Amino acid sequence: EAQVTQNPRYLITVTGKKLTVTCSQNMNHEYMSWYRQDPGLGLRQIYYSMNVEVTDKGDVPEGYKVSRKEKRNFPLILESPSPNQTSLYFCASSPHLGQSANADTQYFGPGTRLTVL
Amino acid sequence: SQQGEEDPQALSIQEGENATMNCSYKTSINNLQWYRQNSGRGLVHLILIRSNEREKHSGRLRVTLDTSKKSSSLLITASRAADTASYFCATAYSSASKIIFGSGTRLSIRP
Question: How far off is chain A from B49, nearest CA to CA, in Å?
Answer without folding.
Answer: 10
